[in-house]
Amino acid sequence: VSAPSAPVAPVPALERLGRRPESFPGAVLLAGPSAERLETEARRLAAILLCPRGCGAEGSSGCDSCRRVHAGSHPDLFVVEPEGVQIKIDRVRQAIAFAAGRPYEAPRRVALVLGADLLGLEAANALLKSLEEPGSHVRWILTSSRPESESLLPTIRSRCATVVVPALSRGQRAALWAERGYSPDDAADLALCAGGAPEGAAASERLEEYREARERILAALAAALAVPAGPSGPAPLLLLAEDVSRAEPPFNSLLAELLADAALAASGSADRARHRAVAGPLAELGRRRSAEAFRRAALAAADPPPDNRRGNRRLHFEAALLNLYGTT
Ligand SMILES: [Zn+2]
């Protein structure tokens, strides 16, 4: 997987590290919620460490060395990635042998271990000595989106300087999509649809599907909350609960988000809503029930059970939605 090329505001701690490659620690662990962003930052650091000029730039502004790092073809860079659910021990042994060698052309070598929490016990133990005494010719960069997980050995963690790479805010994610040429409306929806993975290329393919799911939820809520009450009573809400219970992320959080936005609309704070693209239908809903009723429903709809065995997810959403029925 090559690194996505969209620019992201750099993490200050990483900037400082990159500016002084001589004092870069022997082993660094980049930890944060987005595995893709960690990989981007790890490759950017590797480019700086390997660049004879220290530029580290991407794309056409980068020098030949940096371009080859980002293309994955630099001879002094070795990348270990998980294969399936684990990092293969053979690959770790190759990395250790690589790290012990002299650089071909760069001031030093860099070994990346992406998804270090997927190191098996044997592989992790093999790595310890090299992390502890890497020597002056190599730098290790590990990444983990689950650094607190038990599978990342404390012995590994303690041998690395940890740098936290925070998640992007919704506004930053939207800005990223806009930089790629999406309209402001599309960028805002993509930031929601792609969740914390701003680089998720699949998100743009799912945008239409995402918007249709949102329309369906809004239409069902509008039908259920019609005044005077429709002849079908709460039936649309029960159907909606059934529908939402089968949704996968990010679709399964749509209902709670829209209910929260309806609460904001009902309290006159629509400008703080997430789903501003559907401000009209939200305002309409906001006139049907109190902000308090929507807020209760939104809270109840959040955190659905992880599976739908025995219909427990459907029941969860039904119970949440019934907060809206019969109240005003
Ligand atoms: Zn360069």
Keywords:
14 helices; disordered N terminus; binds zinc ion; elongated; 5 strands; 328 residues; alpha/beta; five-stranded parallel β-sheet
Characterise the protein shown here.
This protein has 328 residues and is of the alpha/beta class. It contains 14 helices and five strands. Strand 3 (109-113), helix 5 (121-132) and strand 4 (138-144) form a beta-alpha-beta unit. The chain is elongated. Zinc ion (ZN) binds at residues 51, 53, 55-56, 62-63, 65-66.
Bound molecules: zinc ion
Note the main sheet. Answer: 5 strands, parallel
Low-confidence runs (pLDDT<50, min 5 residues)?
A: 1-7
- Widest sheet: strand ordering: 2-3-4-1-5
Give the proportion of residues in helices. 40-55%
Tell me the fraction of residues in β-strands, as a range.
Answer: 5-15%
Quaternary structure state of the chains depicted: single chain
User: Whole-number average pLDDT?
Assistant: 86
Q: Using only CA atoms, what is the Rg?
A: 24 Å
Broad structural category? alpha/beta
